[in-house]
Design a protein that fits this description.
Helices cover 30% and strands 16% of the residues. The chain is built from three helices and three strands; from the N terminus they run αβββαα. β1 and β2 form a beta hairpin. This is Secreted protein.
Length: 138
């Protein structure tokens, strides 16, 4: 259960970092008040109702108001992530080293020798009690 929680939280944090650093642009084309097309990548398709610009040499200079409009929303990502560790001060380096050490130790079990009788010496044998009582296991 604990490992699953760590994996889910790690994935969520990585996704948050990814989404906070990505920048993108949303282009939208409106014809009047109606949204015709919206695009995340590339240019939007127009509705074909744009006013065609006439050459200035024509005698009739009547201009028509364009009912179409383009809107562009730019979402800037965070660009100030610190990627180099040589600019960290001593306290921050100590924190990063301690964090990495404890994080790595989460995935390895300690293999301690739990032999508590290692330093214990048995009492000296004065007489062999099994031979004296003649009790033998067969």
């Amino acid at each position: 259960m604990k490992k699953v929680f760590y994996k889910i939280s790690s994935a969520c944090l990585a996704l948050i970092v990814l989404l906070s650093t990505v920048s993108f642009t949303v282009d939208s084309h409106y014809c009047g008040d109606t949204l015709v097309d919206s695009s995340l990548f590339g240019h939007v398709e127009t509705c074909g109702m744009e006013v065609q610009q006439q050459s200035p040499s024509s005698e009739c200079d009547i201009s028509k108001k364009d009912c179409c409009s383009d809107e562009q929303v730019i979402v800037e990502g965070q660009d100030t992530l610190k990627t180099s560790f040589d600019k960290l001060d001593k306290d921050q380096q100590l924190f990063v080293a301690a964090f990495i050490h404890t994080y790595i130790n989460l995935f390895f079990e300690s293999q301690e020798d739990l032999n508590s009788y290692r330093d214990y010496t048995p009492p000296p044998l004065v007489r062999d009690i099994q031979v004296l009582d003649q009790t033998f296991l067969i």
